Amino acid sequence: MMKKIVITLSVILTCVFYQTAKAQYCIAGSTVGIYTDIVPDTALYVNTSYSIDINQDGTNDILITSYFHGTLGGSGKRIENSRIYATSLNNLVGFCFWKTFCNGTNLLMPFNMSDIVSNNTYISAGYMSYLSQNALESCSNVEWIDNTDHYIGVRYATNIDTAYGWIGVQLTQYGNVHRITVKDFALERNPIVGLHELSANSLRVTAYPNPAQTQVHIKTDEAEIMQIKIVSIAGSELINTTQHIIDVSHLPNGIYFAQIKTDKGIGARKIVVQR
Length: 275
Known about the structure:
Elements lengths: L1 H11 L5 E2 L4 E4 L6 E11 L3 E5 L9 E7 L2 E2 L4 E2 L3 E7 L4 E9 L3 E4 L1 E2 L4 E2 L4 E2 L1 E9 L4 E3 L8 E9 L4 E13 L2 E11 L7 H4 L7 E3 L6 E5 L5 E8 L4 E5 L3 E3 L6 E9 L2 E9 L2
Antiparallel strand pairs: 1-2, 2-12, 3-18, 4-5, 5-8, 6-7, 8-14, 9-10, 9-13, 9-16, 11-16, 14-15, 16-17, 17-18, 19-20, 20-23, 21-22, 21-24, 24-25
C-alpha cells in the first residue's frame, strides 16, 4: 500500500508546479495552474489601481496601486514622486520580500521568467517602485524599472496548506512618474482551507468510513451541506457534488481532501482511499 502512495507522489513531482512534503514552489511565468491572462494588458496611470483575484474564487485578493504625491511646498523639492505597491486584501496572501531601503521602505523581490518562487519572507504589502527626492531623503529604486517583464512572487497560505504564484508586470519611468502595466497572473493551485479560517464557528464534520474503499459519507449536524468537492493533494478537482454519499471507487489509493461548503462556512476533511 505504501508503495502505491509513493508512486502517486512521484508523478506529481513531474509537473511544472511542484509539491513536496515540506514546501511547494512554482516557476515565474509558467501558465500551468490557475492562470489568468489580462486582455488587453492594463496600464496603471497616476492614482489608479487594479484588483486581482489570484485564485479565481470570485473575491479579490490583491490591489496594485500607482500614485503620485507632488511637490513639497513652494521649494520645488519632490516628495514621494511616484510609488507603485501591492497590498493584500486577503490576510492569507503575502508577497515575496526583497529588502528594506530608503527610510524603511519594504521592496518586493523582482522575479524574472523561469525563476523559482518558493518559501521565503513574505509581507502583506510592499513596493515595486519608489522615487523620492526631497530635503530629507534621496532615493530611487530602479531594479524593477527596466522596460522588461518581471514577476511579483505570491504566497497563499492557509492554516493547513500553502500555494505559490506570481503576477506579471512591467514598469517604466516617465520623468518623475513610474508607470506599471499588469499583464497576467497565476497560482499553482487553490490551497486547501481549514474549517476555522472561513467559518465563524468550529463546524464538526464527519467523514466515514475513513479510510474508504468505495464510498465515503460526509455528515454534519450543525449546518446544511450545499456542495462537496474532492480534490487531490496537488489541488486538482476530481469530484463536485451535492450528494452526501460520494462514490470514490474510481479513485486510486491515496490521500485526498473533501472541501465542504455549508450555510455556515467552508471546511475541509482529509480522506484516505485504501483497498
